[in-house]
Amino acid sequence: METLESQAELLYGLIHQRFITSRQGMQIMYEKYQNNHFGFCPRVFCNATRVLPCGYSDTPGVDTVKLYCPSCMDMYVPPNSRFQTVDGAFFGTTFPTLFFLTFPDIEVSSHPPASASGRDVAAYKPSPSQLKRQKAEAEAAGAGQRLVNGVLENNLAPGLGKGKMYEMKIYGFKVSERAKGGPRMKWLRNRPDDVAVLDEYSKANVEGWASAEEDEEGDGKVEKRKGVRRGARRRV
Predict the structure, then answer these.
(1) Which alpha helices (H) appear in 68-199, and where do they start and end?
(2) What CA–CA distance (Å, rounded) separates 53 from 64?
(3) H/E run at residue 12
(4) How far, in Å, CA of 217 to CA of 43, rounded?
(5) Tens digit of pLDDT for each residue in 143-155?
(6) Most confident residue range from 101-105, 177-181, 201-205
(7) pLDDT of residue 8 exceeding 50
(8) What 3-state class would DSSP assign to 167?
């Protein structure tokens, strides 16, 4: 009986992984995301960016579910201990990326206002008027923006880059990177000033179109040469 229950739980989790990537599942997860159901990023420079659940692997039993932050593009352990027993394969590795490609107009950097009454941020739910204002601000911010790998450039890791990296200091003096206790992984927080250099989608399309045009031109030249040879034979 225990084996049957564990197998049924595994089957349900794998079905859940496929469901949340469907159209209906995406809409349900979108509503939960807007209602801050999954929590916020603990990193200071992300300014309480909403997170999404995801897994390190699509294979069950590899690792537990993690929280993905689109602002710093990092993954965190859920603060609630009951979620640390949920298999990461029940959400999969595809869901977060597919979610933001499905809803590219989401303003990643938008976050709930700080509560002066000390109310928990996770319990905050925006009112319909606030949601409407956030949507209008996102549309205004998105006007004239470029798409980089299918995502608006302002939504591509807004929590990274210059001025948004923690600098180690001792009595106000920066710690040298060459020091034994200095920063080692600072490159993980880097972000180019022009994010267009990261647009692999456009590069692949341009290269693909160029190669396709060259192939077509090459085929046309071969056909022309064959036609010339045939004409020469007929004249002879």
Answers:
(1) 95-102, 128-142
(2) 10
(3) helix 2-19
(4) 53
(5) 567 777 777 777 7
(6) 101-105
(7) yes
(8) coil
